[in-house]
Write a structure and sequence with these properties.
The structure is a single chain. Strand 12 and strand 13 form a beta hairpin. This protein has nine helices and 13 strands. It is globular and about 55 Å long. The chain is α/β, with parallel strands linked by helices and about 300 residues long. Helix 2 crosses helix 3 and helix 6 packs parallel to helix 7. The protein is about 35% helix and about 25% strand. Strands 1-7-6-4-5 form a five-stranded mixed β-sheet, with helices on both faces.
Amino acid sequence: MNGLKLLSTGRALPRQAFSNDSMRQFVDTSDEWIASRTGINQRYFCGEDESTTSLAIDAARMALERSGMAPDDIGCVLVATSSGEYAMPSTACLVHAALGLPEDIPAMDVGAACAGFLFAMEAARGLLVTSGRRCALIIGAEQMSSVLDMSDRNTCVLFGDGAGAAIFELVPDAEYTSIQGVRGSDAIRVGGPCRAQKMAMDGQAVFRFAVSALPQCVNDLLQKASMTTDDVDWVICHQANVRIIDSSIRRLKMPDEKFYKNLDRYANTSAASIPIVLDEMNEKGLLKPNQRIILVGFGAGLTWAGAMLRI
């Protein structure tokens, strides 16, 4: 089976970080209230000259440079985002233009919220089969601050802006397993008439979904691949809430050290969270050849997806 092999990563963040205490300028909250409930200590918000597109371009350029690939090697560009500046053109088309990529390849956005990066990986795997080129540029990029209701302390303190990117190569007979799923629900939603409304979320419903979906996704991947938790070096999951991750660790009975966490510094960056983790781990030298990793995303839709691959 054709599978994806990770070649390189990149990430980009806005210049300005907002601590939990600094969120008091928007809502009645405190560092203790946020940190104890979520594990978040700070997040980044875009300034006037920063956007989903600018972050996506910076992260993509870094990943492309690190890969050693030429622009002509890229067979598709997919951007997972729920917060692009435009209904059209897509953020992917703007990234395509900025990087000078070939004109005879597909570029499109993928809207699957926090599971979007993994949906984009699976879409890229299919697109590369027919593209005649071997590599895909996959980006998760979000300006969540553009859709937040800054008067709602139950949502505005949870999210941040950022982008992560990765170059994947399509490899015949690669060790690769993936799953995707959807449970139609508006428990997390943005938009409405004229797309004017800000984010609204049923926090309890989303939490119940997430603490079930994350471990189930891991178990389904392992069962599909005929493996056990002992065969896995890292589980890299969407960085939504430390309570969700810790609950899943207990359900899976896996060592805590196999789960990388960075939501304390970035908060929930939706589709960008998994590629941001990949890049941070790459920079730290934690991702090593022949390791087996599981990626798990879950979010609005309600959507979930997972992939297990060797790096």
